[in-house]
Amino acid sequence: MLSDDKAALYVTGDSLSERALENLMDVIDDRVELEVVNVLEKPWLARERGIIAIPTLERLNPGPERRVIGDLSDADALRRFLGI
């Protein structure tokens, strides 16, 4: 299922980033198009987008763009944040 909902998760590959990705995948299923950005591999992208903490989840669409930082362990808060 293609979705208009889009988000980006900025990670480094450490355990906190892995936990954030697992928690996010448990919530979004296929309802959100997700871009996972490893900032160790693409540091310029993190700088360009103003990412200063890892892991960061950025809701891109629907707007307005918003960010949340951490392991994304609160599934209900995550659903509210993403609007799903």
TrEMBL record:
Family matches, as CDD domains: KaiB_like
UniProt source species: Methanothermobacter thermautotrophicus (strain ATCC 29096 / DSM 1053 / JCM 10044 / NBRC 100330 / Delta H) (Methanobacterium thermoautotrophicum)
One Gene Ontology term from the biological process aspect of the record: rhythmic process
Gene3D superfamilies membership: Glutaredoxin
Domain KaiB: 8-84
UniProt xrefs under SMART domains: KaiB
InterPro entries (UniProt xref): KaiB-like, KaiB_domain, Thioredoxin-like_sf
Protein's UniProt name: Conserved protein
Pfam families per UniProt: KaiB (PF07689)
